[in-house]
Amino acid sequence: MNSEIAGQLNEAGTLMLVGMGFVFAFLALLIGGIKLIEVTCRRFPGAPEPVAAGSARKSAGRHSSQEVTPQTIAAISGAIHQHRQAKTKQQENA
Question: What does this protein need as cofactor (predicted)?
Fold first, then answer.
């Protein structure tokens, strides 16, 4: 019986070491791949896209991102009202 338990413990230890070896190898390859990508990106940086002269003028005429138009407020209010009506109807049916 003791030799049977010793054999199972030996197999368990071997399996644990093999599993840990695979995890270590995978993580080492992952770190190596990330480092390789880092070196490649630093060696060959992407060229920045040129900004067209007309695009600056077009964006100046638009509303700023802080401004909310009345149409947007009306659309959001309508959607909230519709959602609340549907929710109330579901609760009445339940």
Answer: Na(+)
Q: For the stretch 4-17, what's the b/e string if a residue is b when 16 or more beta carbons lie within 10 angstroms of its beta carbon?
A: eeeeeeeeeeeeee
Residue 18 lies in a domain: yes
* Each residue's pLDDT tens digit, 2-26: 899 999 999 999 999 999 999 999 9
Which amino acid is residue 16, in one-letter code? M
DSSP state of 44: S
Structural domain count, the chain: 1
- Maximum pairwise Cα distance, the chain: 86
Q: What is the mean pLDDT of residues 16-45?
A: 96
For the question of whether the overall pTM of this predicted structure is more than 0.70, the answer is no
- CA 85, 88, 89, 90 torsion-angle sign: positive
